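Figure 2 data, in text form.
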Amino acid sequence: MSTAPELRIRHLSPAFRTFCGEGALEALPRELARVGARRAVIVCIPAVAEHTEAMGALHAALGDRLAGQFDGVEEHSPLPTVERARAFLEAHDADAVVAVGGGSSVVTARAATILLGEGKDVRDLCTRREGGRLVSPRLAAPKLPQWVVPSTPTSAYAKAGAAVRDPETGERLALYDPKARAQGVILDPVMALTAPPRLSWSAALNVFSMAVEGLQSRQVDPLADALLAHALRTVVAWLPRVTEEPDQAGPRLQLMLAAVLSGQGSDHSGGGLAQALSHAIGPRSAAPNGVVEALLLPHAMRFNASAVPHRIVALGDYLGLAEPAPGAVIEEIERLLASFEVPSRLRDVGVAQDSIVEVVAHAMDDWAITAGPRPPDERDVRELLVGAW
């Protein structure tokens, strides 16, 4: 009789509160009162700020606890914008932050909070290469409590990291601080409908890709796998309905719940090759990061297949395949991506072939690339990108 392999895991679940559905915003003032916050600052993109019904409801919920609104968030969280958000928090004597919108709002708010708390230059705080390996400095200063009121599904809700882009150098500067995690997320139906359907669609592709890459982790954690597997199934079931039912909040709220699951599960499994590459390619592409990540997903799976065939087979089980051999699972992922209308080539999303060398250099310094089951070298990454172009 065969013996099951020894199972050893370390699974720590940070405190995180989720409120979803009609009346969810009513929880926000109670959440602020719970930590004694009296001066909350909203951080959002201009497009969300223009939605008077949704923002009016948020302002009413905050009442006299609203100290100000920074509505200058930009895509990919460029460093100058993050610095302006940090200055805004300081000028308004903020004691809490409410990030409103998508991933850029969440990341900008988190990064601004870290810079405010630490009071140092971002290059003294970011992850860097030391002695051939990536190291994240320990950031000890207290951070302002944060909540997220999203307009799109993003796995960034519950993360401890925030990566900002230096537009002068093209570098991705990653900040990591568990104290900067959000206290929770408020999933409001009206706010969920403020995003164009295609924006919710592209954001959900990131949720899907993070779940797929997390389920390929060498580290088998049944608790994380449960979160990731349900996130995967939820996206498969509900993503098509976002564009089919553009005026319905239900599908969007389901995808937001999947984003919570995928974000929390991937915290334990780590990132992956497609994620790292999308970080490097996204700003050089005509497509959102989630689309780029999904496009690269089958290529990354083929690279990983020899290292974790059993994990890919298990992934096929979650997708309901009758005979989930690794090759069949990757083909099913490709079929799903095609049904989601994801482009299949990097050239289709505006990536220039002569940018591949620069992309490789930036990807090799991305923390997510260290979390995959088969660590690549520069040649591996270059060959994958050429094959995907």
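Caption note: The chain has 16 helices and ten strands.
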